[in-house]
Amino acid sequence: MTPGVRLSPEGERLTREYERRDREIPPGLYSMLDDGALFLVQHRDRDVLRALRSVGWTSLKSARILDVGCGKGDWLVDFVRWGADPSGLSGIDISESRIGMARKRICSHPGDGGMGAELRVGEATSLEWKDETFDIVVLGTVMSSILDPSVRSEVAAEIRRVVRPGGIVLWYDFFVNNPWNRNVRGMGRSEIGRLFPDFEIRLRRSTLAPPLARKVARLSWLAAEGLAALKFLDTHYVGTLRKVATKSG
């Protein structure tokens, strides 16, 4: 559990599930020294950057970015690598230990004269940022982990609130259910549209089914590329949800 933070029943369930995953994940499964993991990350990064370019983002230096469910800071580290200024980054996660790890990875060291990312412990049903604060809100495999429909709706409402008009939600998540993991639920287009009404939704299929991608890429990178090109074995959507700016007057 997260010390000092009062969690909802769904938050407590998520915390237990993340702790279970941390215990049971095989060593090296997500290591970039493994061809399977490297293949998946490189394809995801390519698709994410294409999605950002498609809505006009050619530089991230001045962007204000929030990662909801930031965990250990993987997405935030990626954004720094892609050119974002750490002082423009924010993140929230229900796990104090994960936030602690994220701070070590992306926040400035005391006395270095720089400013690091703003990271907070809490649930995304109550984001402690002002209305229309962010240019980009990252939702990376977050909504599929929330099983309570009412909590999912509350999180979406908070995200809609903190995105500026014309800003985007960067979406990357499963659209299929995982038959081996009942703690995730695939997010179809209709559900995404319900959660983000009046947003301009641009999604494309992405990510060759991870168990298959890992096995094939370790044997033949070329064969994995061929399967990925077919798209019908993909398991995720990647893209942007743009908050439509309302006309005044």
Please give a quick description of this structure.
This protein is of the alpha/beta class and 249 residues long. The chain has 8 helices and 7 strands.
Describe this structure in words.
The chain is of the alpha/beta class and 249 residues long. It has one domain (9-24, 35-243): Vaccinia Virus protein VP39 (Rossmann fold, 3-Layer(aba) Sandwich). The chain has eight helices and seven strands. The chain has a seven-stranded mixed β-sheet with strand order 3-2-1-4-5-7-6. β2, α4 and β3 form a beta-alpha-beta unit. The chain is globular, with a radius of gyration of 18 Å.
Give a quick set of tags describing it:
249 residues, single chain, 7-stranded mixed sheet, 39% helix, Rossmann fold, alpha/beta
The CATH homologous superfamily name equals Vaccinia Virus protein VP39
Return the CATH class.
Alpha Beta
Q: Roughly how much helix do the residues carry, as a percent range?
A: 25-40%
The separation of the N and C termini measures 49 Å
Number of helices: 8
Average pLDDT, to the nearest integer? 91
Tell me which CATH architecture applies here.
3-Layer(aba) Sandwich
> Spans of 5+ residues with little confidence (pLDDT < 50)?
109-114
Q: Which SSEs are present, and which pair or pack?
A:
Blueprint: H1 9-24, H2 35-54, E1 65-68, H3 74-81, E2 89-93, H4 96-106, E3 118-121, E4 134-140, H5 149-162, E5 163-174, H6 189-195, E6 199-208, H7 210-219, H8 221-230, E7 234-243
Parallel strand pairs: 1-2, 1-4, 2-3, 4-5
Antiparallel strand pairs: 5-7, 6-7
